[in-house]
Amino acid sequence: MKTDKFYKKALFLDRDGIINEDFGYVYESNKFKLVDGIIELIAYFTSIVDHIIVISNQSGIGRGFYTHRDWENFNKQIEKVLMSRSLKIDAFYCCPHLPKSLTGEECICRKPNPGMLLLAKNDFSINLKKSILVGDKISDIQAAHCAGLLKAYLLTKKKIKSNKFDDFNFRIVKSLKEIIKIENINLIG
Prior knowledge:
single chain; 189 residues; alpha/beta; Rossmann fold; six-stranded parallel beta sheet; two-stranded antiparallel ribbon; globular
């Protein structure tokens, strides 16, 4: 791990749909299933970044579908699987707030806003311009753009009209293993 706080890099991961399968309002441990390729992705990035951090919108908490403790218990299940493979996630951040469309109020932490990324930046002394995000929704990519991240990957099988926000390019991938291939090519090239 590097010690210069100005050069700490992070891999930011959305949770539902990137780490675990997303079937809507995920909190029940009996429905826990990892997304194919997440173990390999975390293992790969563990050797090239300083921190692996989860940032996740969890409006199910705000809606009363489950509690913050339920969310934490689900995260512990993820951590247990990763620890069995000598891998870890440094922190889990969530926005429990409802979308602005339901409340008329906007919070700074709910993606597409960059609040969770900025909080992690301060907590871990991360250089966002050297960091990467992997998400499965456009709101994830917008948050990465707003926070000034180096790059982002959008995991989707849907057709996306554009892969550019102003001057921020992101890659659309069909699998998490594809990200590893792209990053390996970037290291060689």
